[in-house]
Automatic annotation (TrEMBL):
The keyword Nucleotide-binding does not apply. It comes from Acidihalobacter ferrooxydans. It comes from the Bacteria. GO terms for biological process: lipid biosynthetic process. The chain crosses the membrane at residues 12-36, 48-66, 87-111, 131-157. This is Fatty acid hydroxylase. The keyword Transmembrane helix applies. It holds the Pfam family FA_hydroxylase.
Amino acid sequence: MIAAWFDGLWQNFFALIGEAQTWLFVTLVQPALYRLNMMSYADQAYDATFWFLAGAAQIAVVWALLRPLEAWRPLERWPDRKVVRVDVLYTLISRLGLIGLVFFFTVQPLFDALQAWLQLHGLFNLNLDQYIPGAFDHPVIGFIVYFIVLDFAGYWYHRWQHQFQWWWELHAVHHSQRRLSLWADDRNHLLDTFLLQSYLATLALLIGVEPHQFVLLTLLSGALQSLQHANTRIGFGWLGERLLVSPRFHRLHHAIGYGHELNHHNRARIYGCNFGVLLPWWDILFGSADFDTPLQPTGVRAEVEGENYGRGFWAQQWRGLARMGRQLRRVLHRSAAAGG
């Protein structure tokens, strides 16, 4: 019964968004493409219109649910919310499909070619349906399996972001926000966001995720990650904390003195703790979970000690690239010295 309700819910969602997509495309997007002599991109623009509307709906629902929660039970009380404004911009860029537009025009053709090549040579053998026969006959079961697999992949991506210093300098754009809120999830370097989306989309293609399921996975993941970053003292309880990443669990990951330290006493946490994207299971399994340490101030130690990470969007983007470049030059210098 629950499965039938869930199936009906997402069918109604897609029908509603589909109607709005058609209206918006025919009314505004298609005429604009015609005037700009870009009708050859009509298919990509139609898909982008869907992502725009789905993202707008997600932002509206998340804000309507989480902003009152932040006001009702805030973990921190701030004199103003000005520093959060740049995170709102990040959210709009990420969830309204602007990154997706770049993706469509650059990586999507490569994906299409890869898929055709794999099918032509009979190498499309990572499709999970082949390894778990019958499990994907019902869309809800398939959705849950894909959810778990992609979350496992996201856990390792997140650990790599902390493990390699040059990569950390990009990821530090996310960690540099010292006032976490429902908007902080999408505060990422654009290059890092592009890499993550390419990574997850490639994996989704290889394991056989259907397009409509990938949309739902993306929307659900974004909503839950907004909750994780929310400025709220709400707890999930002992069991809930171990089933789903909570605001408390993730806030400790952002802690200045604990979330990313190169000399932590627990060797499993040399580069931080609580990396789980949605599920804390992987942290528990691989020894990187911490449910007990008291909450601490969030941010990046280097910024607290005086390094400028930028206040505005473009400053944060540029400084992230500059920091990454410095680290890569050091890696190349050490490699050259070792080889010489």
